Every structure is written in structure tokens, then in C-alpha cells.
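[job 4471] stage=fold_predict status=RUNNING
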Amino acid sequence: MKQLEQNRFINRELSWLDFNARVLQEAADRQVPLLERLRFIGIFSNNLDEFFQVRYATVQRIAQSEKTGKKVFGGARASELLKKITDKVIQQQQESSKILRGIEKELEEEQIYFINENQVLEAHKDFLKEYFIQKVSPALMTIMISETQKQDFSDNQAFLAVKLYFNENEGKPTNKHALIEIPQELDRFIVLPSIGEKQYIMFLDDLIRYHFDLIFNFYDYHTISAHMIKVTRDAELDMEGDVSKSYINKIVESVRERILAEPVRLVYDKTIAKDTLEIVKQILGIDSTDGLIPGERYHLRRDYMNFPQLMNNKLQYEKVTPVPIPGLSLERSIIKALDAKDFLMYTPYHSFSYLIKFLREAALDPDVTTIKITIYRLSKISNVASALINAAKNGKKVLVQIELQARFDETNNITYAEQMEAAGVQLIFGIPGLKVHSKIGMIEKNVGGNKKRYGFISTGNFNENTAKIYTDYTLLTSNQNILKEVNKVFNFLQVHYKLKKYKHLIVSPHYTHNAIVRMIDQEIKNHKAGLPSGIRLKLNAITNFKMIEKLYEASCEGVSIQMIVRGICCLVPGVKGMSENIEVISIVDKYLEHPRVYIFQNGGDAKVYLSSADFMTRNIENRIEVAVPIYEHVLKTEIQEVFEISWNDNRKARKLNGQKQNDFVQNKQEAVRSQWKIYDYYAAKSRI
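[job 4471] inference complete, writing C-alpha cells
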């Protein structure tokens, strides 16, 4: 590929690492409360785990095959890309360690101390011993290993690689090695009893180190050392095999086999003894193409996401109460309110409880006959699933399309699928290679002898836990034209994927690309005619080269394009003769920016869509996705005004893919932290 062509796109994997660098910026930001900064360290680490399980694993598979991967990776060889990724990850890991050390020093100024096994105070010894004996010891798995012994490490699990030193036997050292699994079911951080104003925190791994004498008391060792390691495995599901097996059984087996998948990364304490590391590599089957990441003493930093709530509230974000949606009440019928008009729910500024109330009401309403919904990710304890089961037990016909291939949520979804099926819910499972990622639901109700539909289309999952930290739009509607087409989507899923036609919805995988291209072409035509034109997009990611090229074309024709892209962005903005009319920013703050919004100026009569689809090949060509038009003027205006607030952010917005990556947007205008201002915007609307 020519150099010019290479410069048209940012590599997807490297762009993702740039996104995770923005998360790390939040951990470094001294304006962010200290404990929230710790949690951003956890988010950074969790993101990195998933990156290695999915994206790095894909690059590695290609590197190990006979293919170069040039076509897939925009001109770069897979083997070259692996090295670039590893180098960048090592640099980011070093930066995260530096940030973490700084946070710990600042916590000490707040009288909060991390202590290790060598810093235990006399006042804490009895507490720690009792805690270990009662809670930790029963949960420990300790394995004595040898150089020739293979072991199956769980994915993304941390271990202590232990070396026991013995006195020489006939002039030869007789050392032994062991692995101790850090129990996932226990809290990683142990809050010790306070002493005066001082609070003390201890890692679970250090508590284990402190009690080695109780674990290995049957060995006569004279010295012991322990270093943490963590292995990450390829998370791709293997859906091949026996055609006689049911789809759900294939998923169950594939998730089980993930435990034994190829390792793609080994993170280790860089002070580990060479012979211990070599033994670990040997029993894992690690070779030179795998991601070897030297790290600090502590791994599994994703646990910082669940760092305990401490007594000092000023070290955390203030909890805010969701604002009410004018015209909707959790004490009155949601369904009756929808007879009058459509409503827009924007979590977490609004409560997800409105959607739960809608489903609960439908489950009890004697005139509701049918409920249909697509489910991608549910919370561990799901009120959505509970409401659907309730409806089935009340005699409603409940149809649920549940996506069993929602990565890392397969087991949770299978569990709920079994519970719903037992309650009489009719389940639809997808087919391999075509995930159902749409976020749609509807009910059918007898009204005066006629069937009337009510429903919702969302940009996010029906998950009450993530709804507290992900920003997402949900349109609640009784628009019969829209809901007729929502029903068509369910018919498409039910009846052997028979193709349907849509006038209102934009549905992947058959229509999204062409529909977006037509609207971009219309903006080009309007600009040439001197009519109002412009494109505003809010996305999680943009990686589809065809879509990027179309936006480049619009830019070259003079169409103004403003994009807010949270994560991966392969598009290069601001290049003369290619993308000079495109601007791209990313916002990373307290909430995870998750909605997909498409706004086309359309000659002054704006077209506004909410969607489940990013501009990624998988969303456009390989998934069932739904974008819904917003027809009510008030709601259309609301979405555009909220976009404008986000676009004007000059506190948490970063510039993407320019001369310097992730520079904060700074100007002399009034300070705008968009998530704070959006809350104020909705609070003001609720008072009108």
C-alpha cells in the first residue's frame, strides 16, 4: 500500500490504545477526586485485558498464519503491528504505574495508607490472622509445580509465583516452586481497622504473603519469595464442530474452552527470578511472539474499579439524583402517557427505572397480549429479565431475542435464557456470524378492540447497572409507523431471516451503509446548492474504511463535519485536500459516553437518528442494528442542543488524530464541562 494511502487511516489497534490513553489521562487529572482516579486506573487495566483477549489475539493469529495481514491492518504487517502494540502497552503500563504511585502519595496526605506484609502494625495482627483463617485460607488454591508440568491458568487471573529456598542437599540447592491463585470471589482490598484518623488498606495478595508460614508450614524452607503474574488468553469463541449440537450447547462449550485457549499476554513482576519466570513460561507454552509485559509488584489492576467506599466523601464524585422526565411519572401509567406523545430518556441523567416501570406495567396490564424485546447484555441481577418472566407467568406472549455471543456475558445470558425459557418465554437465538446488537422492545395491547403498539428503541443495553454510568438515549414511543417496522425486525429474526423493507428505520446488515451514503450525498448536494448542510455524528467508534472515504468525499465538497468519537477513530481529520472540513473530538469523563447519534442538516429540516450502530464494519455488515428517526420537533431539538453542549466541552474534550494526539480542547470561552452542563440542562427542563 502506498504511503499516501496509509496516511488516510489510523490503525484500529493503535487508535484503541490512544483511547485507553485518554482513560489514563483521567487517572492523572488532579481535578478528578482521588478515589475516582484509582477507579480510572482500574478501567484502564480492564480495557487492556479485553484488548489483549480480543484485538491482540486476532493480530497474533494472523501473525502466526501464513498471511501478512496487510489488507486487514491498513498496510502494516501483523508481526510489525504486534511489536508496535507491545511497545506502546509497555510505555502505557509504565505511565500507569507512575500515576498510581502519585495517587498513593496523595492518599497518604489524606491519612489513607496502603501497607504490605512488611509494614503490618501490631494493632492489626490479630485482625489479619482471623481474616486469613476464616475467609482466605478456605478459598486458596496452591499448586506445587515443576519445570515439566503443564498447568491450565484461568483467563485474566492473577497468581503468586512462589519460590521456596532450602538448604543445600549434598552441595546442590533444592528449591521448589508453587503457584497460588488470588481468589476472585474475595475482595481484593481489605480495609483494616482505623487507628485514630488513619485508614489502612491491604492487598489480598499481601495478606497471603504475610501468612506464608501458615500455607507452607510443612516445608523446612529458609527463605521464600513471591512475585505476581497474570495470563491473558484468546477470547475468540470456537463455533465450529458437531452440527448435531444445539447452538446454546456450542456456546457453553466454547466459553468453557476459552479457559484453555492460547495465551496472548503474560504480565509479570519485573523483579521475579529468571528461573521462576522461565518455568512459568514453559508450563504456559509462552513463546517469543506472545505479549511479555514486565510490570510492577501488583497486577490485576482492574480491581481498582471496585475500590471500597471510604469514609472521606470528598475523595469521590458527589452522588447526583437523576432528574425526572416531564410528563412521565414512576407513580402513574407510562403506557397512557405515551398515548399523548413520545418521550426521550437519557440515562444516567434520567433514571432507568422508567423502562423497568414500562415493562412491569406491561406484565400486569390485562389488555397487553404480547411483549417482544432484544437483549444483548443484562446486569447480573436483572429487573428486565424479572419483568419478562413476570409477564410470561401472567399469560402474556413474551418473545425474547437473547444474544448468546455477547462477548464476556455469554454465561450470564445463558443463565437468564434458561430461567426465562422455564417460565414460558419464547426465546430466539441468533446464528453464528450475525449478532443481534439492536436495542428494541415493544408491546401489543388491545385498545377498544384494536391492536395498538407501544415500544422503545435505545442506543444502549437494557442493563440497569451500566445505565448508572453509561450515557444512552432511549426513545419511548407509540408511533405506529415506527413500531410496525420494529415488529418487522422481530419477524425477520423469527422467520428464517426473510428480508424486510423499511421506510422509517435504518436496519443493519442490509440497509445501513446505503442509507447513510444517501444522506451524505444529500448534504453534498445541498451544500452545492447553497442550502444549509452539515453532518454531526456521535459514535463510540469509526473504523469502516468505506464510510470514512465517503466522509472524506463530503469534506472535499465543502460539507462541514463534526464528530464526537469516544473510542477508536481510524479517520484522520483536518488534512488539506482530504478532510480539512472534518473535526473530531473525544470526551472521557465521569460517565462513559455511549450513544450513537446521527444528525444531517438536510437543507434546514434536520434528520436526527438514534442508533445502536457505530460506523464499524461489524455493525454495518455483520450485525442486526436499528437506527430510529426522531420525528417530534421538541425531542429533535433536545438531541441537537445536547450535542452542542458536548461539542463545546473545553474541560474533558480531546482532539483526535491531529499533529498531537489527545490534546485537551482549550479556549478562552466560559468553562464547559459537558456532562455537568447536560445535567443542569435536564434539571432546568424538569422545572419548566
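[job 4471] summary: The chain has a mean pLDDT of 88.
[job 4471] exit 0
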